């Protein structure tokens, strides 16, 4: 709903402060008489100059007002969600990219697709932005996509012309006070509440049973909303979401209950600003003195304190086999500047954790390090756009003990070719979410994927029936 701003009437005081031109048409003497004739010619010159000055200033201020007013109308938000909610985000294009600017007619490229973004009460989204981590952590695609859609050419303020309805609910910003990780136990109830609100305020959910509504589920097991796979499978996808479209980081090639819904696999969020800052210090073509790199959780014993096998023992095997091997730079502790280590590495190990996907996939590609994917059956984001086979190495979980030999073979054969493919800015940009939609970036690819689902558009199906 667009908030209408009331214009305030400005009362002009008799002698208001500000710039003004005060003129006398003809000069006079002190006692009110006319000046002598020889001065009247001079007076006429002064009068002429004053009139020219007055006219010039009037035209200047009037044109300035028109330009200013036009710019304000052009920049006016299309929804009541003010852009000040996102004032902490830099507004810049993808680095090192020939991205098309905002004059690109995205709507035409996406078959005229239009998306309406619901204006939900702030408790569902922008209230969470009080915590700065909400917009920067690995699940922050829910914020990034919302922000980008609000300035997209695909956005419509008329819900009756929309093909899809985006429901902006941030469920990943409830950080645990114990370990600092996102706690998503409230996700189901928060989304259910948002749907109830939408159903009361708008008629569009019920007419399609949510089939043309889009949500983000950027969590370990996506729309199952739990970090442990067994619990996620047991809970399943909430019934109120089963007809909708889910943008989720989780995806596998085999049957899995947590992807039994219309879905698009998207990349986890990695800050493009941090990547760009890293590349400014360590260019993508720079020296890479680390052969194989991994920093992250690697348990010495295969079963952790929860009684579960983390990473299906893959990371434990990596540590046992290659800790001490001079070719492998393995670190178990956190380091804020670890992206600089990625920029120095030839191969970056991307083993599964609790779930098969990892932000290391995006960071490795963005920083020019060949991702070594160790996660059987993973569905990679935007696999119809990103040439994964040409920019990465896949290693089966059971072959992790042969990893050194596999990487040595790649280094001796086609490493140079893979690195060349990684240097293509279009490949790197495809996995990064920018503040505004740019051609080929992550939100652009989300829009492209939604274009393939236009058969779910209630508006189009209604038109085709007429």
**What's the total count of β strands?**
10
Provide the succession of SSEs.
Answer: HHEHEHHEHEEHEHEHEHEHEHHHHH
Radius of gyration: 30 Å
Approximate shape: globular
Task: Compute the number of structural domains.
Answer: 2
Q: Main beta sheet: strand number and arrangement?
A: 5 strands, parallel
Distance between the termini: 29 Å
Structural class: alpha/beta
Helix content: 25-40%
Question: Within the largest sheet, what's the order of strands?
Answer: 1-2-3-4-5
What does the secondary structure layout of this molecule look like, with pairings?
Elements: H1 37-74, H2 106-109, E1 115-117, H3 141-149, E2 164-166, H4 187-201, H5 204-208, E3 213-217, H6 229-235, E4 245-248, E5 262-265, H7 272-281, E6 290-295, H8 314-322, E7 328-331, H9 338-342, E8 345-351, H10 359-366, E9 370-374, H11 388-391, E10 393-394, H12 403-413, H13 415-422, H14 425-429, H15 442-451, H16 458-465
Parallel strand pairs: 1-2, 2-3, 3-4, 4-5, 6-7, 6-8, 8-9, 9-10
Structure description:
The chain has helices at 37-74, 106-109, 141-149, 187-201, 204-208, 229-235, 272-281, 314-322, 338-342, 359-366, 388-391, 403-413, 415-422, 425-429, 442-451, 458-465; strands at residues 115-117, 164-166, 213-217, 245-248, 262-265, 290-295, 328-331, 345-351, 370-374, 393-394. Helix 11 links the parallel strand 9 (370-374) and strand 10. The model is unreliable at 1-43 and 66-104 (pLDDT under 50). Helices cover 33% and strands 9% of the residues. The radius of gyration is 30 Å and the shape is globular. It has two domains: 110-269 and 434-464, no CATH class; 272-430, Rossmann fold (3-Layer(aba) Sandwich), CATH 3.40.50. The protein has 16 helices and ten strands. The strands form two sheets. The protein has a five-stranded parallel β-sheet with strand order 1-2-3-4-5. It has 466 residues and is α/β, with parallel strands linked by helices. One of its GO terms (biological process) is glucuronoxylan biosynthetic process. Belongs to the glycosyltransferase 47 family. It comes from Pyrus ussuriensis x Pyrus communis. It is found in: Golgi apparatus membrane. Its main location: Golgi.
């Amino acid at each position: 709903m667009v908030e209408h701003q009331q214009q305030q009437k400005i009362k002009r005081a008799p002698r208001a402060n500000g710039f003004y031109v005060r003129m006398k048409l003809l000069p006079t003497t002190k006692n009110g008489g006319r000046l002598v004739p020889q001065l009247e010619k001079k007076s006429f010159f002064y009068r002429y100059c004053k009139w020219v000055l007055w006219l010039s200033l009037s035209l200047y201020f009037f044109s300035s007002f028109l330009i200013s007013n036009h710019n304000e109308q052009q920049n006016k938000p299309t929804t009541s969600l003010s852009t000040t909610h996102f004032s902490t985000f830099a507004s810049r294009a993808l680095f090192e990219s020939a991205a098309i600017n905002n004059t690109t007619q995205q709507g035409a490229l996406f078959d005229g697709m239009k998306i309406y973004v619901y204006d939900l009460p702030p408790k569902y989204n922008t209230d969470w932005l009080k915590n700065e981590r909400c917009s920067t952590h690995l699940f922050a695609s829910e914020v990034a996509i919302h922000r980008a859609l609000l300035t997209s050419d695909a956005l419509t303020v008329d819900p009756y012309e929309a093909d899809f309805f985006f429901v902006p609910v941030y469920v990943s910003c409830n950080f645990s006070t114990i370990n600092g990780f996102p706690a998503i136990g409230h996700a189901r109830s928060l989304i259910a509440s948002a749907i109830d609100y939408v159903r009361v305020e708008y008629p569009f959910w019920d007419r399609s049973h949510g089939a043309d509504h889009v949500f983000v589920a950027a969590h370990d097991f996506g729309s199952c909303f739990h970090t442990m796979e067994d619990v996620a499978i047991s809970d399943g996808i909430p019934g109120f979401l089963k007809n909708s479209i889910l943008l989720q980081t989780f995806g596998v090639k085999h049957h899995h209950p947590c992807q039994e819904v219309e879905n698009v696999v998207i990349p986890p969020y990695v800050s493009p600003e941090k990547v760009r800052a890293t590349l400014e210090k360590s260019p993508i073509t720079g020296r890479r003195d680390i052969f194989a790199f991994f920093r992250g959780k690697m348990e010495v014993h295969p079963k952790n304190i929860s009684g579960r096998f983390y990473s299906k023992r893959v990371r434990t095997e990596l540590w046992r086999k290659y800790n001490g091997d001079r070719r492998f730079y393995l670190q178990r502790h956190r380091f804020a500047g670890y992206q600089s280590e990625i920029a120095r590495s030839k191969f970056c190990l991307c083993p599964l954790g609790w779930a098969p996907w990892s932000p290391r996939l995006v960071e490795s590609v963005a920083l020019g390090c060949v991702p070594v994917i160790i996660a059987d059956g993973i569905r990679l984001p935007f696999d119809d756009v990103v040439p994964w086979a040409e920019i990465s190495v896949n290693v089966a979980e059971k072959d992790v003990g042969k990893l050194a030999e596999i990487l040595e073979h790649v280094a001796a054969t086609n490493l140079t070719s893979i690195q060349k493919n990684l240097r293509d800015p279009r490949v790197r940009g495809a996995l990064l979410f920018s503040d505004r939609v740019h051609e080929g970036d992550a939100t652009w690819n989300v829009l492209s994927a939604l274009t393939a689902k236009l058969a779910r558009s209630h508006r189009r199906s209604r038109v085709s029936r007429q």
